[in-house]
């Protein structure tokens, strides 16, 4: 496969898979703010996000949240984080600002940057992000009102979020209505930091990194997929980054070119060049560990067209890069053995050779 085509398919698979492997930083949490505190933090800052009516309340996450809270296992952690991200996207649209409205523009930038920070949990680009980045810092100083600070700064990816929420508002509900972008980020942070420990975050990091390598192996070593097959198999990929890629793969409308061979007796020997199509099929990967996607077997329905005798209808069996099909001609009923060339592999190798020849 050519470098450009391979890169394009990787990007498409990552986008459609929804999940080709998030990577989290295995870091110690950030230093705790040691500002002296003399009074409890008002419930507005630490309790409002627990209101089931709030669009970012835990109850709004549904089954992923219940499963995670009941099990607290890394197996379900990825789905929980995915649900938080999707819920934030749905609950917090990007503000539409009038020209010259700097306050609105700033709030819109925070929303866009926070969405980008959540997306980095699922980016699969090797970037590291720490659990401490999603922790709100609650402060109750002696000489001022209590507040909650949110700070997520990542210049390399254009993320710059740094603001404080007033925890001493006379009318918390009105404050929330007037500052939905800030309070929305505050509540989303709570959904992450209140239910996740550093150890759980680190455990998922190892699983996510291993699974990212497996997804890459699937693309590099497994049965190469056409774009529509990438889309179809992307639907089967789990958004839970703690789960490895599927051990099987759909085959759909896969083309090939080959020979239909018939040899009932020497006088009637026949060989026709035909186009083969696999309408539907599957591949089951049989490797182990890091080599999981280097060996496979599978089966597909097969239709061949071209030449005389009508369409051939049958099936084929696949073992690694080798396959063999048998079809019956609709016009004559004769059986033919179909041996051919995988067009995806052939076109990729041809493009690579042309690239080297330049």
Walk me through what this model shows.
The protein has 358 residues and is α+β, with helices and mostly antiparallel strands. The chain has 2 domains: 19-209, no CATH class; 247-357, no CATH class. The chain is built from 10 helices and 9 strands. The strands form 2 sheets. Strands 4-5-6-7-8-9 form a 6-stranded antiparallel barrel. A hairpin with a 7-residue loop joins strand 4 and strand 5. The longest helix has 24 residues, at 198-221. The protein is elongated and about 100 Å long. The two termini are 16 Å apart.
Q: Give the count of structural domains.
A: 2
The ordered string of helix (H) and strand (E) elements is HHHHHEEEHHHHEEEEEEH
Helix content: 25-40%
**Strand order in the largest sheet:** 4-5-6-7-8-9
Arithmetic mean pLDDT: 76
Q: Helix tally?
A: 10
Strand segment count = 9
Query: How does the helix and strand content classify structurally?
Result: alpha+beta
Overall geometric form: elongated
* Cα radius of gyration in angstroms: 28 Å
The main sheet comes to: 6 strands, antiparallel, barrel
- What fraction strand? 15-25%
What separation lies between the terminal Cα atoms?
A: 16 Å
- Uncertain parts: 1-43, 350-357
């Amino acid at each position: 496969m050519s470098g450009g085509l391979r890169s394009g398919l990787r990007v498409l698979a990552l986008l459609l898979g929804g999940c080709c492997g998030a990577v989290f930083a295995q870091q110690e949490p950030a230093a705790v703010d040691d500002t002296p505190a003399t009074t409890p933090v008002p419930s507005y800052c630490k309790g409002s996000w627990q209101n089931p009516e709030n669009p970012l309340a835990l109850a709004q996450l549904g089954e992923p949240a219940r499963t995670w809270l009941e099990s607290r296992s890394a197996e379900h952690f990825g789905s929980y984080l995915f649900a938080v991200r999707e819920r934030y996207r749905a609950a917090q649209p990007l503000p539409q600002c009038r020209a010259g409205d700097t306050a609105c523009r700033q709030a819109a930038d925070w929303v866009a940057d926070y969405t980008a920070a959540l997306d980095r949990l699922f980016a699969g680009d090797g970037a590291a992000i720490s659990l401490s980045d999603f922790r709100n810092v609650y402060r109750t100083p002696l000489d001022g009102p209590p507040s909650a600070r949110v700070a997520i700064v990542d210049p390399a990816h254009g993320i710059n979020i740094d603001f404080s929420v007033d925890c001493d508002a006379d009318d918390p509900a009105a404050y929330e209505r007037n500052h939905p972008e800030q309070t929305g980020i505050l509540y989303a942070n709570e959904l992450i930091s209140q239910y996740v420990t550093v150890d759980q975050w680190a455990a998922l990091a190892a699983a996510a990194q291993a699974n990212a390598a497996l997804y890459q192996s699937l693309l590099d070593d497994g049965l190469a997929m056409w774009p529509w097959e990438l889309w179809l198999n992307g639907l089967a990929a789990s958004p839970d980054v703690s789960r490895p890629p599927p051990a099987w793969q759909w085959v759909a409308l896969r083309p090939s070119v080959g020979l239909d061979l018939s040899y009932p007796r020497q006088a009637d020997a026949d060989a026709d060049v035909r186009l083969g199509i696999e309408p539907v099929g599957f591949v089951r990967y049989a490797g182990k560990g890091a080599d999981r996607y280097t060996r496979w077997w599978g089966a597909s329905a097969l239709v061949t067209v071209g030449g005389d005798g009508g369409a051939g209808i049958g099936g084929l069996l696949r073992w690694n890069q080798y396959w063999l099909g048998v079809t019956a001609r609709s016009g004559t009923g004769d059986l033919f053995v179909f041996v051919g060339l995988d067009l995806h592999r052939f076109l990729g190798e041809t493009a690579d050779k042309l690239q080297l020849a330049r």
